[in-house]
Structure formats: structure tokens, C-alpha cells
Amino acid sequence: MPRNFRFLICCTLAFLSLPASAAQPLSMPEVLAASTPADWRPLDPENTLYVELPRGRVVIELAPGFAPLHVANIKTLARARYFDALGIIRVQDNYVAQWGDPDNRHPLPSGIGKVAPEFDSPMPAAMHFTRLPDGDVYAPEVGFSDGLPAARSPSLHRTWLAHCYGMVGVGRDMDVQSGSGAELYVVIGHAPRHLDRNVALVGRVLQGVELLSSLPRGSDAMGFYSKTEAPTLVKSIRIAADVPEAQRSHLEVIRTDSAAFAALIESRRNRPEEFFKVPAGHIDLCNVPIPVRERRPAGARTP
């Protein structure tokens, strides 16, 4: 009997032996309802940013494991109040929203200078990587690490973050060391994966991305605001650890190294809802949601 045929029979028998609940994938709401507190993690206040806009707060989780030098700069800038009263200077449709200080109104605090590009990094043996099974056109392997969409090349032994919706990057000039963290952008459109390994990514928006994606588009080239268009004020940017406990956003993120997240991926690859007549059987890296919710008190049960 051909080897492939024997493999098919074994897989079919194994599938038929599964209970009905295992044979039918759960929907994402069902996966989340069945999750346990161990499937979720709280944010680290030391690596969480609050971007305060006139219409509300944008919560960003930083990624020091991927871009430690840039993250250190951003935290120094935030603690020096560098970002306070700057503006969102660029909103390009289906691309990015960006803030900074193009007129150099705010002097950079001491210690902020050029750093290594941090476009990618060595692939640590201890880093957990939940690999997607469907491949990718931009990288040999893609998946999730520490709650972030990531890619890697085992042959090069390099890993990097991916430009999915809501990811936060560092603006730079032609010099690869020109991005200090003083100018940041958030992806608000279709994933511009061509930017991967060309710009340092430093984190992901967990809450409030709609406050950026709904802003008026700039009329100048690349979505920059013209002189007659008023930029949206960035009231302040603070590190959550520096904000009183009562004023913090108490959020938790699903663990991307959990069984619940693996089930969530399958729930999106093969949608079990009645509406879907032809399940895709595949999923793109940037089409996998990473759920965030209000942090539940200790001992509270998921309804």
C-alpha cells in the first residue's frame, strides 16, 4: 500500500475517533468563552504607553524583546514629556497615522541619539513562537511571539515583527540609524508588509486604534497635513507605570503561546459559522486577531 494512502487512512480513522465537539471547530466567541484565566496575561505597566488624544486614549504595548534600544529611547522621551502638545502630522489613507515634531519645537532630551536599526534580531532559542501552518509570501515562517505578529528565517537565524494593522513603527530618514523614536507611526490600513525589516517596529496598539484610523486624511503628499490643515493634538504620552493606578487602563491580552490561542487560529482558518459555505482553510498572519479585554478581578469567571 502506498505510504501516502496509509497516512490518509490513519488520519481519517483518527478524525472519526474524535468526539463530535473536537471534530467541529469552535467559533472565536466560543473559544474565548471557554478560555481560562491562565490563557490571558496582564500588561506590564513599564512597557505600556498611553497616548492621550482629544477624543480618548490609545493604549500601546511596547516590544523591548524585539527593539530594546528604540523602546528605551521612547520611554526616555515620554518621561521627559517630549511628546506633550505635539501633533499628528500625517494620516495617509489605507496606510499610517504619524506624529512627531518636524519643526523641531521640542529639544530632544539628553541621551537620545542614533541607535542600531533593530529591523530584525537574532532568533533566541528561548523565544516561544506560535507558527502559522499556511506559509507567507514575505518570510519563510510567520506566527506570533509575546502577543505580536512576527516572522523569522531559520536559515538566517533572524526574527522580526510584521507590519500588521495597529503595529507601531519608528519614522526614519534614508540613514538607517536616523530613527530615534521621536517620530512614531501606527499602521491604519492594509498591512504594508513591504516595510518589514526596513523600519523598526516597537509595539502594537491594543486599544483606541479607531481614534487614529478615523482622523481626517492629510491633503499633501503621503498624507501629510498642509499648512491650512490643523493637526490633531497629542495631549500627552505617558508610561502606564508613571500613571496612578486608578487612572490606568486595566487590560489583558490573550497569551499567544496558549492552547486557547491555537484554537482561535483554527477558528479563523476554518470558519464554522453557518454563514461560511466554503471555509478558506488558510489564514494570513495579519488576519489573525489577538484579543484584548478589560482585566478581570482575580477569581472571576468568564461568562
What attributes does this structure have?
globular, Cyclophilin, 303 residues, alpha+beta, nine-stranded antiparallel β-sheet, 2 domains, disordered N terminus
Describe it.
The chain is built from six helices and 17 strands. Helix 3 runs antiparallel to helix 6 (259-269). The protein has helices at residues 3-16, 20-23, 28-34, 68-79, 210-213, 259-269; strands at 40-42, 48-53, 56-62, 86-91, 96-100, 121-122, 130-131, 141-145, 148-153, 158-161, 167-170, 184-187, 201-207, 232-234, 236-239, 251-254, 292-294. A hairpin with a 4-residue loop joins strand 4 and strand 5. Helix content is 17%, strand content 25%. It is of the alpha+beta class and 303 residues long. The protein starts with a helix and ends in a 9-residue tail after the last strand. The model is unreliable at 1-22 (pLDDT under 50). It folds into two domains: 21-41 and 253-294, no CATH class; 44-251, Cyclophilin-like (Cyclophilin). Strands 14-4-5-12-11-13-3-2-15 form a nine-stranded antiparallel sheet.
